[in-house]
Design goal:
- The protein is of the alpha+beta class and 124 residues long.
- Helices cover 23% and strands 27% of the residues.
- The chain has two helices and six strands, in the order E-E-E-H-E-E-E-H.
- The protein has a four-stranded antiparallel beta sheet, with no helix packed on it. A two-stranded antiparallel sheet has the order 1-2.
- A hairpin with a 5-residue loop joins strand 5 and strand 6.
- The chain starts with a strand and ends in a 5-residue tail after the last helix.
């Protein structure tokens, strides 16, 4: 049995509860109306398929139903980490041994401050 750690439920669950949804960290074009057909097609259909460390978007379909990211080695199928949406990965192709914890925390703070700045002016 293959187990995956859900960063929201904070427990390991069976692989059958999860579904992969593609490559993680895909940025939507800032101005889709200004994109050419080729640029829009690249955004919609073309994804990286590296050999080695890769970041993927998954959903805990049977559990909390939340999306999260997985850093996985595509050669060995080993999952190096799971992390919430908006957080930065510790393991990358450039840092296969993992980034120092301070750099990961700084990335998390930057992502949170960006999310807050986007919400300014929004009334609930």
């Amino acid at each position: 049995m293959f187990l995956i750690y859900c960063p929201y439920c904070e427990e390991h669950r069976e692989e059958e509860e999860f579904h992969p949804k593609g490559q993680a960290h895909i940025a939507r074009p800032a101005d889709p109306e200004a994109c050419s057909d080729e640029q829009w097609g690249d955004y919609l259909f073309f994804r990286d398929n590296p050999r080695g460390i890769h970041h993927e978007l998954w959903v805990h379909a049977v559990g909390c139903r939340k999306f999260f990211n997985i850093t996985r080695n595509t050669v060995s199928y080993e999952i190096l980490e799971t992390y919430r949406i908006g957080e930065q990965p510790r393991f990358t192709a450039e840092h296969p041994e993992g980034k120092p914890a301070g750099k990961v925390a700084a990335g998390k703070v930057a992502a949170e401050s960006e999310a807050v700045s986007r919400q300014e002016g929004v009334k609930a």
